[in-house]
Model the fold of this input.
Amino acid sequence: MRLKLIGLPAFCQCFVLFLLAAVIFLAAFHFTVPAAYAGVNYVIPVRGTVEYAMLSFIKRGLAEADKAGASLIIIDIDTFGGRVDAAIEISKLLRELKKPVVAYVSENAWSAGALIALSTPKIYMCKGSSIGSAEPKNMSDWSTDEKMVSALRAQFESVASAMKHPEDLAKGMVDKDIEIKDIKPKGKLLNLTFEQALKYKLSEASVSSIDEVLALEHAVGSYITHEQSLGEGVARFVSDPIVSGILLNLGILGLTVEFWMPGHIAPGLGGIICFALFFWGHTIANAGSMLPLLLFIIGISLIMMEVFVIPGFGLTGLLGIGLTFGGVYLAFPDPHEAVKVVSVSIILTTIIIGVFITYFPTSKMFKQVTLSASITGGSGAKMENIKFLGKTGVAITDLNPAGRAKIDGETVQVVSDGQFVAKGVEVKVVSDEGNVITVTIV
Done:
């Protein structure tokens, strides 16, 4: 697939692609589910992995509940856990609420989910549910660090004390070394069934539905369930470390190929879409901070100037690379996760680009791409695209295969016909499509 922007230089073509990405990025924020402002009680579901995108979702839910005038907020929990830092932020939000709030454990409140449940004054547990198992793990190797255990144990104890829940039970969920008579032997993590939670006064009652919670709380009327917006759904998906790494690899590869062979929209547009998804998801997950995206755009713009405008590659290009990866780094809420994902992405992308540069220029596919003007033009081809056809000039940069040459007194962006062309070598134009000029060694 090829984009023909007749008369536009490669720099302008890339700029148009970035404008398109900006439109996609800004429009994405409008795909949200409108808030409902009727009803008395509000249910905010906590499903799946606890991470920063969930924090954003819960923040919006609490704000909507406040605007709706909800008299009771129910946190419906079913999660195996997730990020401790995100759970602590959610815990703080719930503890600072001015409106009545209770937790309803519909299935599992493990790890980070247990902290969220403990952050409400009352916990109701559905029959068949459980709560506990909150030992912190290092995400890189799943090891347990005593410092992490000690800090999280203190956090659980502090939250339980503030919300008037049994502190020993809260500590036992985090620390294996704590022994609790009749319920938790030393060396095991505490995980309570709904019956045990009721027996040891962690839960208020065992229930079968949210309606039973409303009845026990003497809440009048029906309830509204807070819905996840399209943006939040995409954010939770693309902010996953594995998905983020894939998007970064594809984005870097796509833009590299576009800079290398300007005028072919597929790699450039694909790379921009990958980066747009990456920053869209992480911007929503990070509560709308635009700084990472701004740094990334400035960095890419500097790289484009270095490649298409300024001869050679120097300070401007290096600064652009630094700002680009700085923007990507700041998009992650966790510095350790950022270093890991970005490092892996750089290594994999370098390998892929190396293979691409080594084998693609000599492939039949490359020759079909760069010499397709006569095929795509057909009998109806326009003659205005043959300004330089047949003329000779000199390469003013290395062509590997893209670069710049001076032809007929003009400096233009060119692509070789598949071979490496050193700076200063005389070349001849064999194809001129207006926005893609192909040359060969004379």
